[in-house]
Write a structure and sequence with these properties.
The chain is of the alpha+beta class and 218 residues long. The chain is built from 4 helices and 9 strands, in the order ααββββααβββββ.
């Protein structure tokens, strides 16, 4: 009787050991199946590029120009451009005398007043140096009007939008520097109406965009 019990106990222990071993193998295989491969690469989702921020203004350009003239009376506006000043939306109002006023585009408050000839947004030196106090003197020598010069510029470089135009003097040759909103422009002889040079988008030295010299017309 004791021998039978001993044999039964031995068989039970053996079967239990086989079961534990089988469970260990299955568990190991299961864990292995659930473990990611060391060479697998997680998928990467590329986000779409962020659109460029658009400058918005709470006040109109006309209101900004009125504020500029009130802050610096007696001047004549040459052109106005919406941009940013230290991260704040602002109108840069340029006068024909080379001065200007920067106006907060949301509150209408004057940020900066620039004296005649000191406007950093205007034209400085070089062949586009006919800015500031010279405008009146140059206008007296020009026989081609601003409107005629702009029409000639658009004919020479169609499809553009004029940002502003300004008279200049290149070694005695009076010219109209017509700037486009894309940073290009056309230089027009202010006495004959002939095209002197054309400037591709982003290369107009007379505007706020640096770049190579304009391409003379053949």
């Amino acid at each position: 009787m004791k021998v039978k019990a001993l044999i039964g106990s031995s068989m039970a222990v053996g079967l239990l050991g086989i079961g534990i071993l089988a469970g260990s193998v299955v568990g190991a295989n299961g864990a292995s199946a659930q473990t990611p491969s060391a060479t697998s690469t997680p998928s990467v989702t590329q986000s779409a590029p962020k659109p460029q921020a658009t400058i918005t203004a709470a006040i109109t350009q006309q209101a900004a120009e009125a504020a500029a003239l009130a802050a610096s009376p007696g001047n004549t506006i040459d052109h106005t451009r919406l941009g940013t000043q230290n991260g704040v939306a602002a109108y840069d109002v340029d006068f024909t005398n080379g001065g200007g006023v920067i106006v907060d585009a949301n509150t209408g408050v004057v940020i900066t007043i620039e004296a005649a000839g000191m406007d950093q947004g205007g034209h400085k030196g070089g062949r586009h140096g006919g800015g500031g106090a010279d405008q009146a003197a140059l206008a007296a020598k020009a026989t081609v009007t601003k409107e005629q010069a702009e029409a000639a510029a658009l004919a020479a470089s169609p499809g553009n939008t004029i940002d502003h135009s300004r008279l200049g003097d290149d070694n005695g040759t009076i010219f109209w520097d017509v700037d486009f909103t894309n940073g290009g422009g056309v230089t027009i002889n202010a006495n004959t109406g002939a095209v002197i040079a054309t400037e591709a988008a982003g290369t107009d030295q007379g505007g706020r965009h640096g770049g190579p010299a304009p391409t003379p017309q053949p």
